[in-house]
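Recall that a protein's primary structure is simply its ordered list of amino acids. Everything else, from secondary elements to tertiary packing, is in principle encoded there. The following example makes that idea concrete.
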Amino acid sequence: MSIAYNAIKLMLREATMMKRTSVFTLVVLTLLLSVVTGADALADEITRHAPDYYKPHYQHLVQLHNQEIAAQGYDMVPLGSESVLLPVTPIEQIETWWCGPASLQMVIKYVRGTSPSQAELATYTKTTELGGAIVLNMVSVLNDYVPGYKHLSLNDINFYGTVKRSLQNNRPAIYHLKTRDLPGYNGSDYGHYVVGNGAEFRWPDDVDPDSADILGPPTPPEYWYTYVDPWGPVLGQHRVSADVMELSIRRNAGLIISQ
């Protein structure tokens, strides 16, 4: 656990022993402990899937990525509605735990026209029935065939800008997520990989996309993401709102693989 966690826990223990400690103080300390515990748990999950992520050299790469996104204008809200969609061919995962290899196969085949078999990719990524494939192994193998990919946390990047740039460069993304809120899963919650092949930004009806002038009560613009799912019962392309996609990714360590 972090130093902050231990410090707040000590403060909470001491506060509960003091007769004059207010209920408000106890509530605040309890909430702080909950927040820090959640942050520590997320960091642990990211480290499990990407052991190098918090190392200085990799954090420098993340920083450079964000500087490039900003310099190229991908962090700006578009002035008009826009979309990008790559025609990635769906490939069904052969084994129930091979969603990672199947996603790699789709991306590699889309970019190069041919790809290793799922069995080979499962071996290369050290995919297991119990734990699947960790993100670090996924991106390492992908870069052997299509260089330039990085594993990135949604906490550290502009998600839409990052995915939009990757897609405009003809490079699909891969999302590491939980399935509960995705179409076709009916609440079943599994760790999963899917291929991100589309991103869409849309102004609502009360905004003139040419001038971006508000014509009525302001309504937030909408972001949508299209992805290809390799799991047999829902094999194919699907489209969900940004809220659904981001929540699904954040619930599984919050990591994506993108250029």
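The radius of gyration is 21 Å. The beta strands are 82-85, 150-153, 173-178, 191-202, 222-229, 236-241, 255-258.
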